[in-house]
Amino acid sequence: ETKSIHDKMTGLYNYDFLRARLEEEWRTSKKTKHPLSIVMTDLDRFKKINDTLGHEAGNEMIRRAGAVLKQTARGYDIVARYGGDEFFVFLCHTGHEEAKAYRERLRKAYHEMAAGLAEPGLRDSSVSIGLATFDPKIDPKRPENTQQLLEEADKDLFIDKEARRAPGETRR
Questions:
Q1: Separation CA 170–CA 110 (nearest Å)
Q2: Are 91 and 77 in contact (CB under 8 A)?
Q3: What are the tens digits of pLDDT across the range 58-98?
Q4: Half-sphere exposure at residue 32, Cβ-oriented, CA atoms within 13 angstroms
């Protein structure tokens, strides 16, 4: 059972487990009126790491990013590898302002981890972070379901990634 719900590379929960838990927590949140927030992350310029330093260096950055996410989350939060270099943190009983504070703590912790690496090509690694919140006390109908919550976090991730691009840098 443990193997079926965990990602082999990072030891974090996998996407399937995450989706099942998100559906459960969504129903609970609607019932109890407690907010829930999700955070999606994506390693910036990850393709460049793989292309210039090799896939093993890329895999090591994925493992390190997973460790940072796990360290910055609370024990009862759910941290999962969403796929590739994307991760997901499900923040239980967490409103939007608390989620924004978590985003900044996570960004700082990731930056500190990367800055301490020996390889110059990894030291400037950064992470983009998107978030979305469902708070039934504020608006019990928005978003309407977990898929919309994920889409809101994904849009916020895209906005954060675009804001963090270097001038003249193009998307790949």
A1: 23
A2: yes
A3: 999 999 999 999 999 999 999 999 989 999 999 999 999 99
A4: 12
